[in-house]
C-alpha cells in the first residue's frame, strides 16, 4: 500500500519545482496536470478555470482530447464540474455517469471514464476553477487523496490570483477574478473617488507553500497558536474600557475558536500533507469560508468574519509581522476597503493619499464615518462582500453620492466617472472664486456663513471653505473617537488648537452632547433607555455629572485666555438648566482667577433651541442668554415627532413645510425683538434651498458643513432678499394655491435664476 503521507508530499515537491522553472504558463499547466495524474494513478487530470462570464473553460488536461483545451466549456452549475464550482464543494463519485448532474461533452472523449473526483480551486473562499481526476475503473477516492487534490488546487489558485494565466485568456473572456463588479450600499459621505484598492487588513499573501519538515511545521504552528491564545487572554484581562460590551463578546468568541480542537486538527492534517503552517492556515480558512458562504444565518456569517480575523492574526504570528507601515506603501490614490474600522485607525492613513473609503459595515453615525466626513473623503458603506471580492491594487470607484462602488470598472465607466470628477472640480473652482466675494445678498444684506466642526482634522477647512467662523464646534467628537475619557490637558489642547486655527474668527463651542445616538462605549454611567432621544442626554446628563462639565469648562476657559469664549448648551428644555450651568461656569471662573490664570476677555453663553418647550417662552429665553442657536436636526425631530435616524421615515415629512417654517420665523422674530443674535446650525443650513428660506425668514447667520458653504454662497450672492421677504409675506401663512412651500420656493428661485 502507498504511504499515505508521502503521495501528496511527493506531488507538492514536484509542484514546487514546476513553479520555479521558467516555463510558459500553458506549458506549466500541462506539466502540472500530467504530474497530478501520474502521482494519483489517474488516467485523466483536467483543470477548468472560471471566466468572468460564469463559464468554466478547460485550460489543461492529461488524458482527455488535447484539442478540447480552451474549447470545452460548461456554465456555472452545469454538469459535474459546474456543480462543484457553484457549490464550492468536492464531488467524489465511483460512477460519474449515474450522477444526475453528469453532462457529456463529446469533444473531450471522456465517456470511457467511470470514477471522478473534482475539487474547487478556492482562494479566500472564492471559486476560481475546478480540478478533476478520473479513472476508468469504478473506484472511490480515499480521503487523503481528496485532501491532496485540494492542496494542489490551492497552489493553482495562487497561480491564477498572481495573474500567471492572464496571457492565456482571450479578449472578452477574462478570468472571473478580474471581473468588474458593482455593489450598492449606502452613501455615508458625498463625493466621488477614483483610485486603487488598499485592503485595510490586507490578506497576508503566503508565498512559501511547501514544507521541508512536517514535524517542525507542526511545532511552529503550536508555538504561534500558543502566542495567539496568550494575546487574546491578555486583551480579555486588560481592564481597558474599550474592550467592554460587544468587543468583549468578539474576543470571547476568538478565544473559543483559538482552542477549537477541530480547527487545530485540520491545520495539522494540512501540514502533514506537505504544506507550511502558513499555507495550512490559508487552506483550512478558504475551505471553511467556501462552506459558510452559502449560509444565510447572519449570526453564523458574522462569526465567520471573526474566524477570518483570527486566521489573519495567526498568519501574522507565524510570519512574525507587525502592523505594516501603511503610509510608505500606499498608492497616491488609495481607496481603503475595510470590513469595519475604528476612527483612530483611519487617522493613521495619510490624508493626501486617500481618495475614498469603503466599509462593509458601519452606519452614517459611526465614528469612523464622522472622521472621514471631517476629512472630506467620499464614503460608501454597507457594501457586503466587498472585501473578499477586492484585491490590493484593483482599480475602484467610490461614488459617495449614490452609495455605489465599482470594482475593476470597464473603461467606459471609468471615463464617465473621470468626467464627473472633472465637473465637480470645476464647480469647486467656481466656489473657490466666490470666497473672495463679500457674503451678501444681491441687494447687499450681509449673511454670515459659518461652518460646523468637531475635530482637529476639520480645521484646515476653515480657510479652504472661506467660512466666517465656526458656528458649532461639537466637542463630543473628541470623546467619541477616543477609547477613554480625554484628559483635561487633551481637551484644553484641542480647544487651543481650534482657536489658533480660527485666527480671530468667532468659534462657538458646544458643551459635550452625548447620550441619545451618541454613545461613549467607555462611559460606565450610561443606562439602557426605552427612548434615548428623549432621555438622559446632553445638558441633562452633564448637569447630573458636574465633574465632566467642570473639567470641560475649565479647559475651555484656560484655552481661551486673552480671547472671547463663546459657549453654548445643547438640548436645553427649561431656563433653570441655563442658570445651573451658569453657576458652574461662574465657579470655575472664580477658581481660575484665584490662581491668577489668564481668563477670556469676554464670555458669551448661548442655548441651543432644540426642544419645543422653549418655543413657548421665546422672549424669556432670549433675555436669559447672549445668543441662541437653533439645532434644526433635533428641533424638527421633536416638533414633527419623527426619529431623525429612522430611514423608514427619512423622506416622509418636509423640513420646508409651512408649519416648520412658521416655527423658525417665530424664533427669528423673537431674536430681533430682543436684540439677541440667533443662528441656526442644523443640516437645514447646508442645502441652498433651505438656506434661502432661512435668510428670507430673518436669519443672518447660519452654520453648516464646510462643503456646503460654496453652494450656499453661490445662491446667496444671486438672492434678491427684498423679493424673498415679499414672497414670505404673501405665502407663509397662506401658500399660493395651497402648494407645498418647497415647490413655491423652488419656483421663486427658478424664476430668478438663483442657483440651488
Ligand atoms: C441639531 O440638532 O440640529 C444639531 C446641530 O446638533 P446635533 O446634530 O449634533 O444633534
Ligand atoms: Mg442636536
UniProtKB/TrEMBL annotation:
- Enzyme class per UniProt: transferase
Q: Where found in the cell?
A: Cytoplasm
GAF domain ranges (all copies): 24-170
Does the keyword 4Fe-4S belong to this entry? no
Cellular component, GO annotation: cytoplasm
Per the record, the domain of life is: Bacteria
Q: Give the enzyme's EC designation.
A: 2.7.3.9
Q: Which GO terms describe its molecular function?
A: kinase activity; metal ion binding; phosphoenolpyruvate-protein phosphotransferase activity
Reactions catalysed according to its record: L-histidyl-[protein] + phosphoenolpyruvate = N(pros)-phospho-L-histidyl-[protein] + pyruvate
**Coarse class of the protein's main subcellular location:** cytoplasm
For whether the record's keyword set contains Transmembrane helix, the answer is no
Q: Which Gene3D superfamilies match?
A: 3.30.450.40, Phosphoenolpyruvate-binding domains (3.20.20.60), Phosphohistidine domain (3.50.30.10), PtsI, HPr-binding domain (1.10.274.10)
| Pfam families in the cross-refs | GAF, PEP-utilisers_N, PEP-utilizers, PEP-utilizers_C
Cofactor or coenzyme needed: Mg(2+)
Keywords, A to Z? Cytoplasm, Kinase, Magnesium, Metal-binding, Phosphotransferase system, Sugar transport, Transferase, Transport
Give the UniProt record's GO annotations in the biological process aspect: phosphoenolpyruvate-dependent sugar phosphotransferase system
PANTHER family for this protein? PHOSPHOENOLPYRUVATE-PROTEIN PHOSPHOTRANSFERASE
Task: Read off the NCBIfam families from this record.
Answer: PTS_I_fam (TIGR01417)
The family annotation for this protein states: Belongs to the PEP-utilizing enzyme family.
Q: What is this protein called?
A: phosphoenolpyruvate--protein phosphotransferase
Taxonomic source organism: Mesorhizobium sangaii
